[in-house]
Write a structure and sequence with these properties.
single chain; 178 residues; mainly alpha; Hypothetical protein af1432; 9 helices
């Protein structure tokens, strides 16, 4: 086995791990759809190298923390679960940076997370974050539709407005690589 940084399970192992950890079927189905969407996005990128395997497995495992909670902390818990099991730090970071459009220190503090940056940095993190925003459960939606639903449910809060801007910036950045 290679260095810790390189440990990536295959698709079957990732799906079995989600079942073993009792991730609800609806979340597992969502994760499969996010993986499909992320691969679709990544396959269109021509101007940069993308790790398709990391994208597929990262997308499948991005919500692994939902085995413990469905709140914002699922991102941190997911990272912790993956690190404890010896998986790649890249997978752990995907878990930690996918919520909303990523969270800066201020946003993290405001939602009760440790005060640090949880922003997607790598292209793979950004692709999975974007793909996740395109999936409402197992149904594909536009970014505008996704945020309109959140605005209706939670109001046009500062954190959601910042998140929408971040996602739109990520989407533009990815489109420029196609």
């Amino acid at each position: 086995m290679g260095k810790k940084e390189e440990i990536l399970p295959d698709r079957e192992f990732a799906l079995e791990l989600l079942r073993i950890l009792k991730i609800p079927l609806s979340v597992r189905r969502h994760s499969e759809k996010v993986a499909d969407k992320a691969i679709e996005i990544a396959s269109k990128i021509k101007k940069a190298n993308v790790d398709i395997n990391l994208i597929e497995i990262g997308a499948l495992l991005h919500d692994i923390g939902r085995s413990k909670t469905h709140g914002f902390k699922h991102a941190l818990i997911g990272g912790k679960i993956l690190r404890q099991r010896g998986f790649s730090e890249k997978l752990a970071r995907i878990c930690e940076t996918h919520i909303l459009g990523g969270l800066d220190k201020e946003d993290a503090k405001n939602v009760g997370l440790p005060e640090k940056e949880y922003l997607p940095i790598t292209l793979e993190e950004k692709i999975i974050c974007l793909a996740d925003k395109h999936m409402a459960g197992t149904r594909e939606v536009s970014i505008q539709n996704r945020f309109n639903r959140w605005f209706q449910k939670y109001g046009r809060s500062k954190i959601l407005l910042k998140s929408k801007k971040r996602i739109e910036k990520i989407q533009k950045e990815i489109e420029e690589l196609m």
